[in-house]
Amino acid sequence: MKNIFASLFLLFLISCTNTEKNANTFPAEVKELLDNMSVEEKAGQLTILNLTVLVKTDSVTGKIVLDSAKLKDFMVNHMVGNILNTHSVALSDSNWRSIIVTLQKYAQQTPNKIPVLYGIDAIHGATYTSNSVLFPHNMALGASRNPELARLAAKATAADVRASGIRWNYAPVLDVARQPLWARFGESYGEDPFLVGEMGKAAVKGYEEDGLNKTTGVASCMKHYLAYSAPTTGKDRSPSLIPEITLREYYLPPFEACVKAGSSSIMINSSEINGVPVHGSSYLLKDVLRGELGFEGLVVSDWMDVMRLHDRHHVAKDYREATKMAINAGIDMSMVPYDTRFTDQVIDLVKAGEISMERLDEACGRVLTLKYKLGLFSDGGLPEETAIKNFNPEKNKELAITAARECLTLLKNKNDVLPLKKGCKILLAGKGAENISMMNGCWSYCWQGNDNNLYPNYYTSLSQELKKIAGENSVILEKGNQIKSTSEDVIVLCLGEDAYAETPGSIRELDLDEDQQQLAMSAYATGKPVILVLMEGRPRIVRKIEPEASGILMTYWSGFGAPKAIAECLFGEMNPSGKLPFSYPKYSGYYLPYDYKYSDLDEELQIGVFTKTGYDVQWPFGFGLSYTHFTYSVIEADTVLFGDAMLNISVMVKNTGKVDGAEAVELYTRDHYASVAPSMRRLRAFNKVFLKKGESKKITFQLSAKDLSFVNTDMKRVTEDGKFDIIIADQVKEFIYYAK
Ligand code: BGC
């Protein structure tokens, strides 16, 4: 008992220190402002509303316009300090700038003239700015195994967003995708925490490296802390049951990595973990995020999630109690987003002493500090001339195409059916053949991303790109949902998912729908070779239609560059190098990530006879074919790793095939024995190299004890003495680790 009190006291001390530390790190300007602000003005800074509350439909033009009465009410009377999102779909960059100018004009009418902070979801390019170029979604980028692409895409996005007058972006998504039913699977970089962390760090760099007060930077927002990606039933925003050891082993590391990389803000998971909604968890928001990870930036709630502590999770008896719970647990800003009840409640709670003035100042100080860092106080938050000219440079299209090329993942190539010979005639079918939004997925010019009319006219479809290579008359489009017969040489069948975002994308089974499977069956019945092109945000089960397919290309949601890259790939104008960032399941009811445990392998299909056949997926994590072959030399590595030293590892990789190509060299380790059952392998490093045909390169890696660590039953990260394997492609090498 005494121990419990001692640790509680220690926790109290730690949390006090964190609070004071944060308050003391505010810039002098922010401290001074805080001294001059009323409780009402501070509460307004803790509030973010959606743009919809400020608009009306013009009775003459029928257009949606800003409404001066609403602006006055929300921005001046209630002193709401922050606005997000669009009122409907993407707007032009100049339209955005005039909105920002108007908002800042109203902000100038508040007592301290604090500029508005505008936030937007620009998660694979400037989603809500029409005419901008959209890049591959995170899952596709995960397949590229090329963090530099994530950095460049983020940098280009930052410039487009800033040119629109907006300085805060709700990205990157750092949720680790280990629940394939989840509708936001495609927004994640993959199922492995290290991969997600590496790609996420690169994105944070891309958004912020130029400096928040520079006209090419935006504040990033890591989301959705923590484990939003792991709903137990798979349904978006539904509860998860996750042991803390698992939370720390798989879901926390990407956030830890991106906090270290300096991300400015973080958005919270809407769901509950083990019965505790994260928006009300002072353990996760204070002890872990502030205390352990040392995060000093802004914590913003997700959509309506403060109120939902009451009306969805039922842990607060009313909205007032929910507000108190969330703010005291550590939420700094509430994405309300439709009214000012939250603002009024904060004022009331502070006046009643139920939220302390210190806590109000801490939360408000964080909002103001971000505004200060973004340069909003120096220019009143007005659009910057030097930012405008950076909007949508021609080079973004090239970057989007390069990125899409590196993402595409070739999953099957029976008898080298691919690349297709020039001159061959194609029957192109399936719902993705002409559907642009299936290649771009969610958050594409509108939230759901499913309106083809919103795409800029420079976007092309796959049929157009195939015709550019094969010739106008060599591509015949089959629009029906059955193929009777064909005289063409090959059938290219584009299957997958229509675009969807968040809860509307929830599904109850992973199987590809029956109609599309039937279409595939009818294609096989023609006797012609069939290439499946899978356009999907999450792995849909293809077990029944896979065996008869000659080729299969996974395209994920690869953005603007997808159709061109796919056409080039089918004709061998480029060589695919993507590797699956998740384990592609074979059965709807059996998803096992690649880092499964030794005992996952055991099966007893016949009583008393155990086989090691338990890992049965359609394609494993890291799988991806090339038009060339890479061979690996034996691994050279130190045989012993002591304490804090580094283990040096190298391997020669050779392109032994007939064409140039890129290979993502992946290093895994396997712990032979540990106090917590170890995984069969864990990804520890990767490095993508380009090799001309016949060329070899020596790839070197270094590992420290920390890279081998795991979370033990005391919730501590440890590396225990013992034997490990290094695994690179088909090569394995053993070494021993001694702490001392
Ligand atoms: C999503 C967030 C997003 C926010 C603002 C929420 O529904 O979960 O990812 O940033 O809306 O659009």
Describe this structure in words.
- With 740 residues, the protein is of the alpha/beta class.
- It has 4 domains: 1-26; 37-388, Glycoside hydrolase, family 3, N-terminal domain (TIM Barrel); 408-579, 3-Layer(aba) Sandwich (Rossmann fold); 628-738, Immunoglobulins (Immunoglobulin-like, Sandwich), CATH 2.60.40.10.
- The chain is built from 22 helices and 33 strands.
- The strands form 10 sheets. A 6-stranded mixed β-sheet has the order 13-18-17-16-14-15. A 5-stranded parallel β-sheet has the order 6-5-4-1-12.
- The protein is globular and about 75 Å long.
- The two termini are 35 Å apart.
- Beta-D-glucopyranose (BGC) is lined by residues 85, 121, 170, 223, 267, 302-303, 502.
- Beta-D-glucopyranose binds next to loops.
Please write out the topology:
Layout: H1 2-24, H2 28-36, H3 39-45, E1 47-50, E2 55-57, E3 64-66, H4 68-77, E4 82-84, H5 93-107, E5 117-120, H6 138-144, H7 147-163, E6 168-169, H8 193-208, E7 221-225, H9 244-251, H10 253-260, E8 265-268, E9 272-273, E10 276-277, H11 282-292, E11 298-300, H12 308-311, H13 319-329, E12 334-335, H14 341-351, H15 357-373, H16 376-379, H17 385-388, H18 395-407, E13 409-413, E14 426-429, H19 437-440, H20 462-470, E15 475-478, E16 490-496, H21 514-525, E17 530-535, E18 551-554, H22 562-570, E19 584-585, E20 603-606, E21 609-611, E22 617-619, E23 630-632, E24 636-637, E25 640-642, E26 647-655, E27 661-671, E28 682-691, E29 696-703, E30 710-711, E31 717-718, E32 722-728, E33 731-738
Parallel strand pairs: 1-4, 1-12, 4-5, 5-6, 7-8, 8-11, 14-15, 14-16, 16-17, 17-18, 25-33
Antiparallel strand pairs: 2-3, 9-10, 13-18, 19-22, 20-21, 23-26, 24-26, 26-29, 27-28, 27-32, 30-31, 32-33
Helix pairs in contact: 1-11, 2-15, 3-14, 3-15, 6-18, 7-8, 7-18, 8-10, 13-14, 18-22, 20-22
The protein binds beta-D-glucopyranose (BGC).
